[in-house]
Amino acid sequence: MLTISAIASAQVMAKLKIEGVEKNEGKIYVSIFNSEPTYKVREPYLSFSLNADNEKVTKDLSLPAGQYVFSIYQDSNGNEKLDTNLIGIPKEKFGFTNYDGKSAPGGFNRHRVQINEKVNEVVVSLYKI
To answer: Do the Cβ atoms of 126 and 74 come closer than 8 Å?
Structure first.
């Protein structure tokens, strides 16, 4: 019983805010990574999709306290993948935590954010290059 209550108390209610959404253009796909190894091999801790029904979309999450990278793209054409050009540059809007849209995305350490009782809001802006 102690183990269950310890696990439950480690959960944090967090809010994800996605900005720069093209309203009513397909779906938004979110992948959340909780470690560098899983980020490198693209195995998310949690993934889900959201409707692109506003220019800002929010989602309440319950996550264990820890470090995470949020990777998000808007699938405008409905093919359930991030379309890229011949050299791998995205054709659709995308974003990461701690990303400003001005350079190539980096690794887990560059994009990680801490989620805990004091820091429980994550804002990700979507960019089109």
So the answer is: yes
Domain span at residue 54 reads 2-125
Give the helix/strand (H/E) hosting 89.
Answer: none
| N residues, the chain | 129
How many domains does the chain fold into?
Answer: 1
pLDDT tens-place string over residues 103-125: 888 999 999 999 999 999 999 99
Alpha-carbon span 34 to 119, nearest angstrom = 16
Strand 121-125 relative to strand 11-19: parallel, antiparallel, unpaired? parallel
Q: How many Å apart are CA 11 and CA 61, to the nearest integer?
A: 10
Burial call 81-114: b when 16+ CB within 10 Å, e when fewer: ebeeeeeeebebbbbbbebeeeeeeeebeebbbe
Supply the CATH number for residue 26's domain: 2.60.40
pTM of the model: 0.90
